[in-house]
Every structure is written in structure tokens, then in C-alpha cells.
């Protein structure tokens, strides 16, 4: 028995050595995928993977990159920060990929970026919005190997503040935010700065703690100060509750949010009749009449038999984005390290890349400067309101 | 002024929930001197049972309330039988640690069975808002339901404890377990009944919270459980009217702290209150200082 086991161990070991040596063969370009495919935020990762796969299949059918097919190496990071870092290390060292796509969330991306930086592999997240993902918090320096193809939270906060001032003609805003969440605090700061700078007044700002369910007392307090809009930069659980409790207390002013609102659970929790006069910024809307968007929806439906959401669109764009950089990188396949460097420079120089979620320009902070859409909830149904460019 | 009244209404709503949960704490403590830390999680189980009976059996509010209360009273009795009864004569700390264990067991079991993310509780009642004083004060029908059901359950409980045989037995056991046994009272059955009634009340609170907030999750019992414990101590642990008074007071205090201070401080205030009461009047608002006879 022992012998059999040791034989199996030996064989697997030999096979894995072969697998590695085969994998670095010269006919494919290997790209790693490090995404949340199970556990807490699996929704995000799975949708993004569907989008990435659709894009890469299309590119390969058209002949790939200078005659070579792109091969995806997909590993699940289980929605876990530590695991995200392990996956990135595995992709860089064992799988010898040229670049890593993912993860979906800010925390996991920050942690995977540490490994990517160490092994000098470009890593690109399709949806991590926190400002400090690409920029070092302490030094303010851009992280050399870390990129994103979505807008960041500063931009989102600005967009919503300008929307409140210009479109809704609001003068006085109230803000409810989660003091235990980086996402929420960052958005609160950015919204407030822009709103005040452009002539608005923030007349109430109320913080709450993790897992809060009862907002009735802070909403009552805000209601009686009579603001024109309420900005609530929170995730979908709290968003539903805040909308519901505000409407039940007779507060009918517009409620604004960010991309955290882009989830069907918001309407389920708030109730269809309460989910009115709600506006939030998002990466994409399926009702965008842009030909490119509609074409993407057609293709996605043909392959997966369902409507794509924002995350699927972000994944799809990322697939084309990496292909575009690969084409411009003029890879020589002489050494992996040199090719990774060439690819990194190509990504850095991306200008006017036209995607489904907007035109992407990578700026010096490795952020994508791109448009956001504003979505309105009418009786619980998402309606495309407008597209805003940076 | 209208803001203050609105905040008071918000506070009473929150207070009803605390009061219902703290009744169970107080009853169990009054009889076997045990702080049942699993009580908040029974409240959570109650919410989930109602959720399942509404979603899969298509029951209405009152039937699902009854199903959930029935299920949880059996659960409460089972927990007592298997977890607490063998430890009845052990040091009190063992029972307390066991209670914490049961609490974690319930939370994690529910996470395995129903998943860790929150679920949307179905809307059982059509929502109606009543605007008073030109819309400055809003009361909705769910708040009225919550208050009516809470008060009704408390009246029933009071009747059971004061006027029935089992209530008499409970009061006897809480005074002196050994003497009650000598008088021919079946102590084990009495304790079982106490757990059943307390758990049923917690389940009712769970259903009402699901109805009111439309959202439930496996950890929803943790904080309300602790708060209800504070409410019970505030009113005087082991005293039924004290639990009610404590629950409503705590709900109103929390709401006023959020309304006139900051919502970040409300938990801190609640727990600071607990410490203060334990220092100033350990027996609670309605508690009497009983001198130990030596």
C-alpha cells in the first residue's frame, strides 16, 4: 500500500514537472485569472469570468495575437484576501503567466498586488474601486504593476455630487455613511468635497456602525432638517433598508448611491413601491443605446442564455483590454521577465481604448479615466438615466 | 417637538423587540439562575422558521407566528434537556460556558443550512403609513402590529404566571427549588415550561423583526440578544415587569442617543448603562435588595 502511494506521489510530481514545461511552450500566450469564484462575493467573480471568457474566445477565433492563441489559467481565490495572494503567487511562479486578471474586490486586489509586485507581473482588476488599490497609501506613489479598468471611488463621489447639483438642482445634501467601511468613507469624503466646492451645503452627515439595521432615528433627524437630497454610499444590504425606512418615514427626496446599489437585492429589501426617485452611479447599463453595448448583450445572451450585468461587461472589456495591450507590446518570447515588462509598458500607454463600459484611458495613477452611467430606480426597475464623462 | 415624538415612536418600536427578548432572559434567570446566552439565537431561529413557513408553506402572518413560536418552544426545551440539565448541580460558570457554546452552535448551524448572507423576508402585510400633524409624524401599520402583538403576548404571559397552576409552580421554584420539590412540584417539568415560554416569546420577536425590517441573517440575534440582556438587568433580572420596562427604556434611550447625538455612540451608551446600573443598583430598577440570611 505504502509503495503504491509513494509511486502515485512520484508520478504526480513528474507529471507536474512535465505540465509546467509543456505549458511554457511557444504556441500560446498564458494569462492568469485570479477571481472570487466561490463563497462570499462569488456573484462578482463568476460574472466577470463569463465576460472574460467570451472576449478571449472571440479573440482566439479571429486568430489570437500574432498567430498565438491566448490561454486562460483560472484559479478561484474563494473570496479570501490571503488566498488571493497565494493564487497570484501560483500564477506568477508556477504557471508563468504574462499577466494576471482580477480580483474583483478592493481588499483581495490589494493583497494579490503584493505578490504580483514581488514577481513583477502586471495585475489588472476589472472592478476594484478603492483609491488605494493602485496608489500606495503612505507614499502616494503609483504601484508599478497594478492597474484597474474601472473608475475609482473619487471619481464616483464627484459624479454623484455634480449630478445632485446640476441635474437635480440640489442645494442642501444629507449623507449617511458606514464608518466601518473604507468604500463608504472614501465616497463620503469625495462627494462632500465636490458638493461643497461647487456651491452646495452638506447640512447633515450621519455615521453608522457595522451591521446596523435600524436607521429610523438618523433618518428622522435628517428628515426634519429638510435636505434636498440624501447620499448613502453603502453596499446593497444597507441600501435597501435605508431606502425603505426613509420612504416609510415620509421622506420622499431623491436618494443617491454609488455602484454598491447595483444589485437586485436593493429593490427586494426596499420594496418596489419604495424604490422610486433613487439614483446611483454604475459602470454600465444594459439600456445604454450605444451600438457596442447592444452588440455585447446580444453575444452574451447567445452564449450564456441570460442578461449580462455590470460585472460581466467589466470582464468582457478586460479581455479585450489585455488583448489590445498584448498586440502593442511587441512580445519577443525571449524571456518571460522581459515580456512581462514589455506588456506592462503597453498597458501603461493605453489611450482611447473603446470598451463596452466606456472609453478607457490609463492615467499616471494606473486608473481608468472613463465614463460612468447614472441609473434611476422607478418602481423598482432600473432605468438608464445618463452617461457622464470624466 | 414633532421630531421628538417621532423619535419616541421609533424608540418604542425598537423597545418592543428588546422587551420581548428580555422576557425570556428574565424568566430563565428567575428560575435556575442561568443567563441563557443562546436566547438571542433562538430569536434568530424563530425568524428563519417564519421565513421558511411563509416562503414554502405559503402561510400568513399569524399562522407563521404560531408555527415559529411552537418550533422554538420545543427547541428551547431540547436545549435545556441536553445542554443545561446535566449541569444543574455544577458550578454556575460551566452552565454559562455551555450557553455560549449553544449560541455559537445555533449561529453556525444556520449559516451551514441557510447560507451566510442575509435573506429578504417576504412582505406579509401591505404597508400603510399614517401621517399625523400634517405629515410631521409618521406611523406605519407594521409598528402598530409590533406594539399590539408585544403587549398582547405580555398580557398573556402575565396571566399565565399569576393565574395558572404552572405559573404558581414557576413562582414556587424560583423562590426555593428544594422546598418546591418537597411540596410535590415537578421541578423538571416546570423548568421545561419556562424554557418553552421564554423561547416562544423570543421567536415571536424574531418574526416581528423579520416583518418590520424585511431582512434576516444568521447573526441577527447577537446584538439584540446582548441588548435584551442589558434590558433585563436594567429592569431587574428575574422580574417580568422589569424586563418590559427595561426593554422599552433601552429602545427609547438608544433612539434618542442616535437622534440627538450620533448613532455611533448608541451601543456604547447601552453598555455604559449596564455598567452604571451594576455599580449603583445591581438589583435593577424594580429589584429589591434581599439580605442573605445567615
From TrEMBL, chain A:
Belongs to the leucine-binding protein family. It holds the Pfam family Peripla_BP_6. Residues 29-379 form the Leucine-binding protein domain. The lineage of its organism: Bacteria, Bacillati, Bacillota, Bacillota incertae sedis, Caldicellulosiruptorales. Keywords: Amino-acid transport, Signal, Transport. The keyword Signal applies. It comes from Caldicellulosiruptor diazotrophicus. Signal peptide: none annotated. This is Ethanolamine utilization protein EutJ. InterPro entries: BCAA_transport, Leu-bd, Leu_Ile_Val-bd, Peripla_BP_I.
Automatic annotation (TrEMBL), chain B:
Keywords: Amino-acid transport, Cell inner membrane, Cell membrane, Membrane, Transmembrane, Transmembrane helix, Transport. It holds the Pfam family BPD_transp_2. Its main location: membrane. It is a multi-pass membrane protein. It comes from the Bacteria. The chain crosses the membrane at residues 12-35, 95-114, 144-161, 191-213, 228-256, 268-287. It is found in: Cell membrane. Belongs to the binding-protein-dependent transport system permease family. LivHM subfamily. This is Branched-chain amino acid ABC transporter permease. It comes from Caldicellulosiruptor diazotrophicus.
